[in-house]
UniProtKB/TrEMBL annotation:
It comes from the Eukaryota. GO terms for biological process: protein ubiquitination. Keywords: Membrane, Transmembrane, Transmembrane helix. It comes from Rosa chinensis (China rose). The keyword Glycosyltransferase does not apply. Belongs to the 4-toluene sulfonate uptake permease (TSUP) (TC 2.A.102) family. InterPro entries: TM_pro_TauE-like (IPR002781). It is found in: Membrane. This is Putative transmembrane protein TauE. One of its GO terms (cellular component) is Cul4A-RING E3 ubiquitin ligase complex. The chain crosses the membrane at residues 21-41, 101-123, 220-246, 258-281, 288-307, 319-344.
Length: 363
């Protein structure tokens, strides 16, 4: 049985990454175009461009699947620029509401599928009122430092635990201890906020109304379970999670514009953590990562501005929902194509098709 991209090192199968040299040609041109439109549509729909970037990097550019995932995470830089741009616009005309309308959701992601190590990321979702106060505030006044500090602290703790796992023996007591330490970091604050919502001490305001939703135990458990499931699937596929969380927010009754912004907020934190981890562990080539991050940033900004003008001209925010649906459909087809291509290749070479033993395999 052939084991492609696997190198045995002291009884452990170490993954061999495939990094093609960066040179101008039809592959780079086609890849740039696909990445450009993927990031543009993803920016408007709030679902990111991972569903386009991972297949493009694998099938066209020629990267191995794990390196494609790492580079795709680097394109999340566009989320930061989109957030800053939106923030500036909101600060000019209205104050973004952070107090009493936030909700914690468990969003677990497999930051490193090749290590099969899972983590749970806690993300705070901020929903902006469409008809908020019409007075100007400064950017600094628009920041709620306490909530931002909590998110930053959790980001650093989870990142530290994930990196530490790579320097201990796989499946050892220390390895599992580091894995389990992530649970109280996120479950505690999440449970606290869920209780506050259930008791009515926290509300999710929308359409200019501050009457909170009827948060039953069933709803709270369902949304948390959906967030966990979305995070696991997104991590396995190397995506940021917006592709799965966007429809969930719409199901919760969140307006399309706010759903897009919230999904982008999620991807900023989940993907940025992955980028830092992958960089420290040298999982992707810097030149390609910088190039496609630049492409994604430019296309994201253009896509956001064009989408905003079209929505204003048509007066239909539902356009965001159609873009989200199209992006999800196209991503499903492209990711499915990658899976089928790899499946056919493995069958032809009579390779192992099931999950590998995590205790004898390392990236």
């Amino acid at each position: 049985m052939l084991l492609k991209n696997r190198i045995p090192v002291r009884g452990v199968l170490r993954y061999k990454h495939v990094w093609p040299g960066i040179r101008f040609g039809w592959k780079v041109v086609v890849g740039t175009l696909l990445g450009f439109f993927g990031a543009a549509f993803g920016s408007v729909g709030g679902v990111g461009g991972g569903g386009f970037y991972v297949p493009m990097l694998t099938l066209i550019i020629g990267f191995d699947q794990k390196s494609s995932t790492a580079i795709s995470k680097c394109t999340s830089i566009k989320s930061i620029f989109k957030g800053v741009d939106t923030w500036k616009k909101e600060t000019k005309t209205k104050k973004v509401i952070f107090q009493n309308i936030y909700w914690f959701i468990l969003f677990s992601a497999l930051l490193d599928p090749s290590n099969t190590g899972s983590c749970v990321i806690i993300l705070k979702l901020y929903w902006m009122l469409p008809n908020a106060w019409n007075y100007k505030v400064s950017v600094l006044e628009n920041v709620y430092w306490k909530q931002l500090g909590i998110i930053a602290s959790e980001w650093l703790i989870i990142l530290g635990l994930q990196i530490a796992k790579n320097y201990v023996t796989i499946c050892s007591a220390a390895y599992w201890s580091l894995d389990l330490l992530q649970i109280p970091v996120v479950v505690g604050p999440s449970s606290y906020q869920a209780i506050k919502l259930y008791q009515g001490q926290r509300v999710v305001a929308s359409q200019g109304s501050e009457t909170g939703a009827n948060w039953t135990i069933y709803k709270l458990v369902f949304y948390c379970a959906s967030g966990i499931a979305a995070g696991i699937v997104a991590g396995l596929l190397g995506l940021g999670g917006g592709l799965f969380m966007g429809p969930l927010f719409l199901e919760m009754g969140i307006p399309p514009q706010v759903s897009s912004a919230t999904a982008t907020f999620i991807m900023t934190f989940s993907s940025s953590m992955s980028v830092v981890e992958y960089y420290l562990l040298k999982r992707f080539p810097i030149p390609y990562a910088l190039y496609f991050a630049g492409v994604a940033t430019v296309s994201s900004i253009l896509g956001q501005h064009v989408g905003e003008k079209v929505i204003k001209a048509l007066g239909r925010a539902s356009l965001i929902i159609f873009i989200l649906a199209f992006t999800a459909f196209a991503s499903a087809l492209s990711l499915g194509g990658v899976g089928l291509a790899h499946l056919v290749t493995k069958i032809q070479h009579k390779e192992y098709l099931w999950f590998e033993n995590m205790c004898t395999h390392k990236s």
